[in-house]
Amino acid sequence: MSQVDLSLTVDPFRLASQGRTLQGSLPLCDFPRLADGVEDAAGAVFFRLEFRHVAPGRDKVSGHVEATVRLLCQRCLEPFAYALETSLDAWLVETEVDLASFPDEEDVVLVPEGRLHVASLIEDELLLGIPFAPLHADLEACRGVSHRGSVAQAAPVAPTKPNPFAVLKQLKDKDRKT
Fold first, then answer.
1. Is pLDDT above 90 for 96?
2. Labelling 148: which of 31, 69, 108, 109 has CA 20 to 30 A away?
3. Measured between alpha carbons, how far is 152 from 143 in angstroms, rounded to an integer?
4. Which bin fits 57, alpha (ψ -120 to 50), beta or left (φ > 0)?
5. Closest by alpha carbon to 51, among 111, 134, 97, 102?
6. What is the per-residue pLDDT for 145?
């Protein structure tokens, strides 16, 4: 296992041939795209990435990335803590020609010029794990929301003026009786 300065790029193919594992934690604020998509950039990102050689010309990166981020609930518009966890299992390729040799359902990371910016890979995985419309997991945690899932409304206000059509309704009802 290695602690590496993740602001730099690494040679993932060399790490795979050596069977190396990178693990550690980084401040959430070191991930600018992720920090822009959350309510608060406090906290840390924990990661473990294993590089391995599978077959000639076939290398993989697998691992786990997690962080607790503060998101804005789209139901009540209040921030809440969200446990963001994602697993990674992707092939490493250096060229787009190699990329085309994999089926669409396989995850593939393009590593141009044999250099991988590990922090960007971690950030990409976390960004993919953020829900499109984040919501509190527990409806009770949402303020101002009724148990039926709609925003709670105040009691209806009594009309202050009489309805001008009330007289017409009375005439119509009178005609029906006769």
1. no
2. 69
3. 9
4. left
5. 111
6. 62
Rounded CA-CA distance 173/178 in Å is 9
Write down the H helix ranges in the chain.
12-18, 32-36, 96-100, 118-129, 166-177
The pTM (predicted TM-score) of the whole model is: 0.72
Both structure tokens of 24:
């550690």
The DSSP secondary-structure symbol of 51 reads E
Spell out a b/e string for 61-97, using b for 16 or more CB atoms within 10 Å of the CB, else e: bebebbbebbbebebbeeebebebebebebbbbbeee
What's the pLDDT tens digit per position in 128-175? 998 998 988 877 778 756 555 454 455 555 556 777 787 778 888 877
Residue 13: pLDDT band (50, 70, 90) is very high
Taken in order 135, 141, 144, 146, is the CA torsion positive or negative?
A: positive
